[in-house]
Amino acid sequence: MKVKAVIPVAGVGTMLRPHTHTQPKPLIPVAGKPILGHIIERLHQAGIRDFVFVIGYMGEKIEEYVRNTYPWPDVNMEFVVQSPREGLGHAIWVAKNSLQQAEEVLIVLGDTIFDVDLESMLRSSHSTVGVHSVDDPRDFGVVALDADGYIAHVVEKPKIPKSNIAMVGIYRIKEVKALVESLDEMINGGARGERGEYNLTDALMRMIKMGVQIRTHEVDNWFDCGKKETLLETNRILLERIKSPATLDFPNTVIIQPVNIAPDCQIENAIIGPNVAIASHSVIQNSIVRNSILGAYSQLDSIVLDGSVIGNDASLKGKSHHVNIGDNTEIDFSI
Fold first, then answer.
1. Cα separation of 117 and 41, whole Å?
2. Contact, 286 vs 302, CB < 8 A?
């Protein structure tokens, strides 16, 4: 079965500023690689060889990263621009020409890492959406099931939810023609949701009314990397799963696992970890770093960092602080 993955990555990522002033959110690093890298590699592992990326904000950076990092000869990579950005349904609609030959479509949000049995989801005989029961579903698309376990109703961010079953951003659609027709009707008819966007949930509801049967698939966990706190939590969880090198030898330095440290980093007189990811060409001296993410070419001297995200080419000197700074920043606390 020919499955085409559609990955919307056009958003601005305002909740992760200042980092997203200079980097699109899917390229923010977590556990040693960009968020988008984790997603692409998991889909490739599941056998998917056909990708469409819906780009917008800093889309050229995303395309450059994907093409340079994954030049796989057996994989097709397409890039479609979403402008203006008018919701997830609109993002899929602008890619509709790329979907014409697809037998199935797998839609995966480009800023969310999933714990899901993807292979099982792809084997289902029905269209399937990933769901998880949540305490407060009002910030999600919410589904209600019929007596046979099919989705009977779906609505985007309801004020009064009919269930606590939330859609979490992964959708496997077998009826591609019905999806495109529903999106066409919705967008050509100007059927925007309450927040002024074209919602994918509304297109799914149109498909259900057409007679398409859609089931749910339980997602064990998902990591929406849209805020600093969730980004650091995702970093911690993924680092615990990744096997680090048995020995990391830096002068007069203590390493507390789990960590992910690029091999070209220079570190001395330091304590690193736990739950620390350090990107390439970083230089750390006389510092303690824990529960943090450091971008490439970052420099630390005489600093204690805990629960921090440091952008690329950032320099810090001085004493202990709780910080969240973007790329190309220099802060000197020693004065």
1. 14
2. yes
State the Cα–Cα distance between residues 157 and 167, nearest whole angstrom: 10
Rounded-to-integer distance, Cα 267 and Cα 253, Å: 7
Q: Before 26, cis peptide (omega within 30)?
A: no
| The predicted structure's pLDDT at residue 321 | 60
Give yes or no for a cis peptide into 274 (omega within 30° of 0): yes
285 - beta bridge partners?
268, 301
pLDDT of res. 15? 67
Which option is the CATH number for 243-332: 3.30.565.10, 1.20.1330.10, 3.40.50.720, 2.160.10.20? 2.160.10.20
Predicted local distance difference test score (pLDDT) of residue 121: 92
User: Quick check: 109 and 225 in contact, CB under 8 A?
Assistant: no
Number of helices and strands (H, E) in the chain? 8, 27
The domain limits of the chain are: 3-228, 243-332
Task: Give dist(CA 68, CA 65) in Å, integer.
Answer: 5
The enclosing H or E element of 176 equals: helix 176-188
Are 275 and 258 contacting, i.e. CB atoms less than 8 angstroms apart? yes
At 222, give phi and psi (nearest 5°): -145, 155
Q: What does the alpha-carbon distance between residue 97 and residue 101 come to, in Å, rounded to a whole number?
A: 9
Tell me how crowded residue 269 is: count the other CB atoms within 10 A of its CB: 14
pLDDT at 241: 86
Q: Which CATH number fits domain 3-228: 3.40.50.970, 3.90.550.10, 4.10.91.10, 3.30.530.20?
A: 3.90.550.10
Q: What are phi and psi of 289, to 5 degrees?
A: -130, 125
Rounded Cα gap, residues 198 and 181, in angstroms = 14
**Which residues make Cβ contacts (< 8 Å) with residue 88, sequence separation at least 6?**
8, 109, 197, 198, 199, 200
pLDDT less than 50: residues of the chain: none
238/116 Cα distance (integer angstroms): 14
Q: In what order do the strands lie in the sheet with 266-268?
A: 266-268, 283-285, 299-301, 315-317, 330-332
